[in-house]
Amino acid sequence: MAIKVKVEGFRELDKALQQLKVATAKNVARRVLMKAAEPIAEDMRARAPDDPDTGGNDLKSSIGVGTKLTKRQSKANKRESPVEVFVGAGGVPQAHLQEFGTEHHVAQPFARPAWDAGKSQALETIRDELTIEIGKAATRAARKAARDARKMGG
Fold this sequence. Notes:
Shape: elongated
Radius of gyration: 20 Å
Strand content: 5-15%
Structural class: mainly alpha
């Protein structure tokens, strides 16, 4: 089943991002994506099964938001964008077994339901926060340019 989502305003935001320095644009995008992904990670933690015997070193505590993957995860990931942020269980080999189950263990999905519940809000957060962050970055760049011009002129 295909789901179609219509989003508006991202083309303009992309053009505005391209007006910034590359490093600044990447930092802006990374901050926004991390902020938009955190509610999904929180929901995943709330849905993940918790084994009290593990003492905190378990699936629930491994769920997070970041820009790095484990070596095993990196091998399966095709880099598609200059900025990527990941949400999920980090380095816990049993995560997919919990999510999808096995012949001996019933599935306990936590990632997909969290994504399904949070993806629309994540898109809205990305749109709104990009607008704010691009504005802030442009203001900082203009202030720096004015400061540099004053230094050169006097």
